[in-house]
Structures are given as structure tokens and as C-alpha cells.
Amino acid sequence: MRNFHVVIGGGGFGGLTAAKRLGKEIRNRKLPCKLTLIDKENHHLFQPLLYQVATAGLAATDIAVPIRSELNRFEQIDVRMETIERIDLEQKILFSSKGSLSYDFLILSLGMRVNYFGHDEWSSFCLGLKTLGDGRLIRNAILNAFEQAEIEKDPKEQQKYLTFVIVGGGPTGVELAGALAELSKKSLKKDFRNIDPKKSRIVLIEAAPRILLPYTERLSMQARRCLEKMGVEIILSRPVEKIEKGKIIFKGGMIEASTILWAAGVCAVQLPGLDVPKEKDGRIKVLEDLTIPGHPEVFVIGDMASLPGVPAVAPAAIQMGKYVAYEITRRIAFQSGLSLDRDVSKPTAFHYLDKGMMTTLGRGKALVQFRNFGFNGFIAWIVWLLIHIITLISFRNRLSVLIQWAWAYLRFQPGARLLSK
Amino acid sequence: MRNFHVVIGGGGFGGLTAAKRLGKEIRNRKLPCKLTLIDKENHHLFQPLLYQVATAGLAATDIAVPIRSELNRFEQIDVRMETIERIDLEQKILFSSKGSLSYDFLILSLGMRVNYFGHDEWSSFCLGLKTLGDGRLIRNAILNAFEQAEIEKDPKEQQKYLTFVIVGGGPTGVELAGALAELSKKSLKKDFRNIDPKKSRIVLIEAAPRILLPYTERLSMQARRCLEKMGVEIILSRPVEKIEKGKIIFKGGMIEASTILWAAGVCAVQLPGLDVPKEKDGRIKVLEDLTIPGHPEVFVIGDMASLPGVPAVAPAAIQMGKYVAYEITRRIAFQSGLSLDRDVSKPTAFHYLDKGMMTTLGRGKALVQFRNFGFNGFIAWIVWLLIHIITLISFRNRLSVLIQWAWAYLRFQPGARLLSK
């Protein structure tokens, strides 16, 4: 009997879900199949809470888990920490930094990376947030800015240290701004003697005329008012023109700030050799079964895939991961003459189940939008908290982390305020 | 009334204890006194458990706490994150990277740093363990070695990745070796497919004829046997001659290893301008009241101080911190005409209360020595665990961390196995 090899590129929500599902199917149905997951990092990241690591609310270990320990119960799964470099679609080979892998089925789930819209030189002065390393860099930058302000004698320089600019008013920018406002105005309020962290200036700059574009205008306006009440300055309709060290220039103005954070754009990770139709932001236009044209053995899932009506969010990646795992199981079973409990002869299309979206602004403050129905405030925050706690528990299986986190979170005393190289 | 300024250099066990005690005395007795603590890091480190961060058993946030949050309840205490550069003993001024501070009393508690015995060039190939950053570097090196071994095809190179050499058989070296043996032989045993982490080679090299010199010969021998049973190779009486990238040369032999850890020596941090009698390892010979000759206003405490009969351990630093806090309170009260509950006219000498020493070898295995009485095994480990849990709780005040830690620890499933830049 032919032995299949499934390769998964990327251990994010899409890739890890697909790996777990396929691992189970291989074990339970005794499919003649081996699976290899490649990722450049050794951990899966719970990205929706990464802004908390960046703002010292959570430790890196609270929101990341080694990919190996998530998958070590599946003997047929091999995990390799490598960088994927190139693909040969015709030969069905994936080339990595250390070698190459032949595949029968390939699942690409490489996600997005920070995109400075062609201004990569800005990356030195303006930190983006995508990896755990980014989160740590931003946390160090923020905490260091307060420390430098405390010992700085020149009031002008001091003000620069106490100014934080966030570029981009999407969910990431909004969550960073809210968490930064709470950090400076609540958590740190008693910590300094020469400066008053409450007086820090937190500015959110957005090129569009309103923040949180994916939400309804009403919710977006409520979020804006809420952030302003928390002390965040919001500048709208101002595209950024230039970023230098400690200075940001936008249409009609300029701000000096030692900490500038970039939450304005991401683009799909590019893989040389993957010459298929793409969106402007690099996402790959997939067919309705998430494969690419002419290659029914290559699936693209998660943020990297573009399919009408499916947003680039974690729940979509998870649903796609489950779908491709089932689809590949179906095909391998069919080709191996194994029977499945369901009728496996007909191909299926991926259907996205919209679970709505939510963004948190701060403690007790969040927005929830489910199709055309949206609400904000404390109830929205409770919904946000419960959903994240439940997802994080199933993901980490460590209740104690959550207890600890909830405790620190509610007391405004985050435990992760460590500056370290 | 004259206002006093006490400056503390260093936020380790000695400095932080002194700051907390003095903070309380200033507040309760209304002493006319301000206090400034300077440290180059923003956190206090629970050093006795740093080897756990280095071997992925604990997260950085579990064993470190921001100095500011430990001291923010004392309004008279100012914390500055700066590097101390030089001292002028005559003018009573401490110079730092950002300015200078005049003091009436100075407490120096700068601790030790890794010492390569004049071979600073070894530091690039051989990691020392003193700061939280060091702990993270070592953890990344260890985890990365396993990842590289997993994808390496050349068996010789693979063996190099799976060889870990620890130089120095003192408590740090022994704890690192034991934790590394458990990590590779227990925690990681199911994680890989191409390598067997159980077959990693863990070598402890010591120049002296036995490990753990401060302990009795009997305990040292028992520790050696215990480590060997855990799979650690112990090489005695072999001084290191040269360390290169991936290679260590010692008297009579050579080992190729991609990970070489240095636990063979430390020396006291040196402060330009502090021209006083010192030991060979740079520790300052203090008088019986912990001051330096000719300068009754300058105290040196913790690992940086050398006093006959007092070892360089955390309990000694804590006792010294309490002593100088009381001594300075006494002097300020006396000079300000305030009365104290005790007779304050007579100077006192520092007395060290020996609380014994202990070293852990692994789960359920430790050594305890109290003066001439020593024991090892499970009871010793329970004593070690209780003392560390109690100290860590009082230090962190966060029971949940301990619950989480104990749980992960007992299951051999440490949660901190994250590789990150």
C-alpha cells in the first residue's frame, strides 16, 4: 500500500489545528500516512493575546506553547524547526534551510508578517508586532522609555520618552493603545518619583477617517470615545509620511516620540516558487476547497489564504485547519481503499462559520460584533474574557496560568514588567 | 534638621532587603531621610532558581520581580535604572551613566559577575549564568541544540549538538547538570523522532578532585554517585585549557560539544574609585560593621563583601541588608536626636547566622549541610523545596505561580520550553 506524506508549513492556528486533526485521523483510522510540520519557531503563539505580552500584562510562557509538546502524542508526526525557503510545485518538493521534503499533500499556513508599505527602513525606528520576539522587544522599549524618562533631566527629552505613538487604528493598534493607557495610568501610577506616568501621551494615528474599519460606524465611534476617555489621543485621516528615529511625520503634523509602534499593516509571507494568483497584500487566491489552481494537492489556509467573505482571524484559520484535515483524510482513505463513516466520494467546499469579531479596549471594556448586531461595554468584555479564557485553557490546558492571569489582570498588577535583554 | 540621603547600589538580595527595611524605618520613625536605589536592571532576581530558567523549568517572570513594584509603597524611595560607573569616596558622590548622586550613607551591593579567569575570549563560546538574560541565552542554546540535532543528517554533527559540557562542579554547575539530565532524559523524551534525547551526553568537568567542595567529602561523593546514576558524566581533576567554538580542551582530553556552559568562576563587580583592600576574586575586605576602612559611611554587603566565616550566599546577603538598615537607622536617629526603642549609642558588629547550605540534584534529590551535619536524598529535597517555596512566596507573594510551578515540576512537563529571540 502506498504511504502518503503530508507536509504542513507553519504551526499557527491553521497549521497546528490541521496537524492535530490529521494526527488523530491517522492514528484512529490507521491511515498509511506520515506528517511533517515545519515552523521557523519552536512554539505556537496564541496571537490574540500577544498585545498583552507587548504591554507587560502577560509573560511569554502564558501565551505560547512548544509545538513539539502539543504534538508529541502523535507518533506519525515529525516536527522540524526550520525556515522554509522555496517550493517546487511540479516536483512536489519543499526546500528548507537544512534540506528538502517531498510531499503528497501540502498545507501552507505561513501567516502574515509586518508590512511597512515599502518603507522597510522604518522598521528600525518603529516596532511591529507579530512574533513573541516582537512582543518582548516592544515591552522592553515601553518599560525602558519610562525608566529613561525617570532619570532624564531635560524636560523636552523627558516628554519624548513619555510619548508613545501607535500607527494604525485596526484591532491591534486599538488593543495596544488601550493596554498602554492602562499600563501608564493605572499599573505604573505609584512606581515613579520624578515623572508621573499618568501624564504620558498615547497617540493613535489612523489614515482612514475612523478607527476599527471592520466594525459598524456606531461601534467604531463608541470605541473612539472610550479610548479618548482612557486618555488616548486619536488622530484620524492622517496618513504617515515618514518615520525617523524618535520622530513621526504625518499629513499636516509631526510628533516626537521615543516609542513608535507599527500596527498599520501586514502582508502574507511570500514563498518563492509559489507562482499563483495573489491579492495586493500577497494573500493567495484559493479555490473553494482551499487548494490552488492546478494543484489539488496544495492547500493554503489561515491568514495566507484569500477567499471571499472569510476574514483573516484565528477562528477562520482553525476552521480551515479542520476542513483540510478532513479533506486530506477523505482523499487518502479513498485512494487507499479504506472506508470512512461518511460518504467520501464527493468533494466538499470550505464553508466559513462567522463567529463574529471582538476587540478589547481595556479592563471591563470591549466591542463585540456579530454580523449586523454589535454591542460594547462591560458585557462585551465579559464575553471577550470568557471566550479567550476558554480557548486559552483548551490550548494550554493549564488552568493555573489563567487563575494567575485573571488575578494580576483584575488588580492592575501585571507580573511581566521585566526588562531583559 | 539635616536631611540624609542614603544611596543603595544594586537591587539583589542585599540591596533590596536593605531598601525595604530602611523604607519601613524611615516611614515608621519619620527619619529625615531619602533613599535612592540604583540598579542596571529593572528587576530583582531570585538567583537560587536561575538555573531553572536556563533549563526551561521556570519562566523568567516566575523568578524575577520589578524592583519598582517591590518598593513603590515607600514614598521616600527613588529607584533609578542606571549603570554605576565610578565612585568618589572623598566627595561622597556616586557617578552613573546619566548623572551623579551625593550620599550621606552608601550601601554597595553589586554582587558578582561571571569570571573566565582572564580568558574573556571564551565568553563567546561558553555561556555563563548570572543574569536573567544569561538564563534566557542558555535556554535558547540548549533547546536550539536539540532542534538542530533533530534535523541534522551528519551523525558526527548530530552528536556534537547532543553533547552538553558544563565547566565547574560547584553548586551552579551541579544544579545545571542535574536539571539538564532531567530535561533530556525525562521532559523531552517523547518530543523527537530522529534523535533520542535520552542519549544526549552531559559532561561535568571540574578542576578539583571532587565536586561540591564546600560540602563534606561524604556528601560530595554521594552527589557524584547520584548525578552519575542520572546519566551525567563527571570528569574530575581536569583544569580547562582552552575553549573554542564547539570544542573544549582540558588537561588530558578534548570534547566536541555545541553547548558549553561556564559555572567555574565568578568575581566581584569592580567599581572604579573604590580603592580598598580586596581579595583575589575582587571581593572587598570589610570591617566587622561591614564598612570599609576610613569610610564609616560606606557599607559593602552581599557577595561583594568578604568577611571571614561568611559565605557568598543569599541568606548572608539578606542578613547583611537587615544589619546595615538597622545600623544606618541607628546612626541617623542618633545624629538627628531621635530616640530609638533600643540603646543606640553603641556600635554593633555584624553577626552571621549560619543557616546551612543546600543544592538540588533533581526531582526528589538534594543535599543539605548544616555545619557538620549533612544528609541527602528525598528528605533533603523536601527541605530544599519547602525553603525555596516559602522564600519565593514571601518574595513574590504569588501563590498561584508556585502551584503552577509545582504542578509542572512534578509532571516533568516544564512550561517554559520556548525558543525566542
Automatic annotation (TrEMBL), chains A, B:
Top-rank lineage group of the source organism: Bacteria
Annotated coiled-coil segments of the chain: none
Pfam families attached to this UniProt entry: Pyr_redox_2
Entry similarity comment: Belongs to the NADH dehydrogenase family.
Statement: the UniProt record of this protein carries the keyword Transcription regulation: no
Swiss-Prot/TrEMBL catalytic activity: a quinone + NADH + H(+) = a quinol + NAD(+)
One MF term in the entry's GO annotations: NADH dehydrogenase (quinone) (non-electrogenic) activity
FAD/NAD(P)-binding domain mapped to chain residues: 5-321
Protein name (Swiss-Prot/TrEMBL): NADH:ubiquinone reductase (non-electrogenic)
Entries under InterPro entries matching the protein: FAD/NAD-bd_sf (IPR036188), FAD/NAD-binding_dom (IPR023753), NDH-2 (IPR045024)
Alphabetized Gene3D superfamilies for the sequence: 3.50.50.100
Transmembrane segments: 373-395
UniProt entry tagged with the keyword Transmembrane: yes
Class of this enzyme: oxidoreductase
Keywords: FAD, Flavoprotein, Membrane, NAD, Oxidoreductase, Transmembrane, Transmembrane helix
